[in-house]
Structures are given as C-alpha cells and as structure tokens.
C-alpha cells in the first residue's frame, strides 16, 4: 500500500478506533430485546420500538452512556404494562452495562505503542463526539491524553466541525489525516474537506453511524485492518 506523504497532523477518533466501546451497547441492546421477546413481544416489533426510541433520544439528547440508559428506562416504562418482563432481568442488564463504565476503556492491541511511535513524527490529536465529561474521562483513564497534544469533544462530527477545526488551527487540509472507524463521522467529512483519511473498519460500529465510504478509491483514502498498520503508511 502506498504511503501517505506530506502529513504533519494526525487526528484520531476515540470510541471503537482507540478502544472497544459500542460492543457493550450492542450486548445490552441484544439482552434488552431478548427480554421482551421472552415476555411475548415479536422480535421485529421489539427492534423497531428500540430503533424509533433511540433515534428520537439521540436527536434530542445526544450521545453517551447516560442517554443509552435513558432509552432503556424509557422503553421499560412504555412496554412493561403490556409485556410482563421481570424487573430483575432489567436490573441485571443495566448493572452489566454500567460495569464497563466503571472499568474504564481498554485500548485495542497496539494503540499505545503505535501512537507513541507516530508522536515522534507527527502532531497527534483526538476528535470525538458525545457528552464532554464522559468522553474526557475515557480519554484520561485510557492514558490517551499523555500521547496527544490536545483532544476535541463535540456534540456531533460533521463537515462543519472539520472545517472549523482546520480554520481555527490554520491547518492545511492536505497536511492533515483523520483516522477512524466510521465513514459517516470520520472518513467522509474528512475527505470532503480535503484531508487525508485512514479507515479502520470495526465490526461493532454503531448502527446509526453506518454509512458507505463516499469514494472507496479516493486517492487520499487508505483502508487498514488493524491500528498497528498505521506505521506502515505514515
């Protein structure tokens, strides 16, 4: 694979790029849906109810663990009068989900070593979306704050955010590379701004973040299987 040349700045997504995150949401969601199916609800109806409530909650309240718990509680209040799901099962789902927050993020294999090496040649930053306190806490507990020059936490990641970031730091887009797992939030907006992008797919990427890469053959795009491979193209 041809190396990327002329880069001075690397920006990393956080959740599901540096550490496993959405896996825990998927695990809780599947357990939650299974609970309603066991209580007599059609699986398709349970999934549709979850999706509709989730979309509305994200649109009105944003991202993060607290909003996810709000979704579970809200649907419980809506569905439990019709379907006799045991409260103890609901409590177990919530407690299991909360465990991952208290344990803190676990970096993917090779992340720390790779970023340490890249920091010798590039200016490193993190750009992540979600609740400020939650994302900051994960960055610090994972030790990423010690590997980057700064981190940016925004409510949403879109082309406007990328343009503002470039402008506020007077970065030349062709000298900046975005690294992430989400075409919707990381890859497509970065390419649209004239930046380079490295796509590292993750099997548990959040379904609301699913999107196709706008141009899989874009000359400023590279696709890797693992984080460690970054040192081979940068």
UniProtKB/TrEMBL annotation:
Keywords, alphabetical: Hydrolase, Magnesium, Metal-binding
* GO MF entry, a single one: metal ion binding
InterPro entries assigned: HAD-like_hydrolase, HAD-like_sf, HAD_sf, PGP-like_dom2
Q: Which Pfam families match?
A: Hydrolase
What domain of life does the UniProt record list for this protein's source? Bacteria
Q: Which SUPFAM superfamilies match?
A: HAD-like
| Name of the featured protein | HAD family hydrolase
């Amino acid at each position: 694979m041809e190396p990327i040349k002329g880069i001075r700045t690397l920006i990393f997504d956080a959740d599901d790029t540096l550490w496993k995150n959405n896996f825990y949401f998927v695990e809780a969601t599947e357990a939650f849906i299974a609970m309603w199916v066991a209580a007599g609800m059609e699986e398709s109806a349970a999934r549709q109810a979850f999706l509709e409530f989730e979309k509305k909650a994200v649109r009105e309240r944003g991202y993060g663990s607290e909003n996810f718990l709000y979704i579970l509680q809200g649907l419980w209040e809506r569905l439990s009068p019709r379907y006799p799901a045991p409260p103890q099962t609901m409590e177990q789902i919530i407690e299991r989900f909360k465990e991952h927050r208290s344990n803190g993020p676990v970096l993917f294999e090779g992340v720390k070593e790779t970023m340490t090496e890249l920091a010798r040649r590039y200016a490193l930053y993190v750009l992540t979306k979600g609740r400020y306190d939650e994302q900051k806490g994960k960055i610090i507990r994972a030790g990423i704050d010690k590997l980057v020059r700064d981190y940016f936490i925004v409510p949403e990641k879109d082309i406007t955010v990328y343009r503002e970031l470039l402008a506020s730091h007077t970065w030349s887009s062709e000298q900046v590379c975005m690294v992430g797992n989400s075409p919707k939030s990381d890859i497509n907006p970065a390419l649209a701004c004239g930046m380079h992008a490295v796509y590292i797919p993750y099997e548990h990427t959040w379904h609301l973040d699913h999107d196709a890469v706008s141009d899989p053959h874009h000359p400023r795009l590279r696709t890797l299987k693992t984080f460690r491979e970054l040192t081979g193209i940068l």
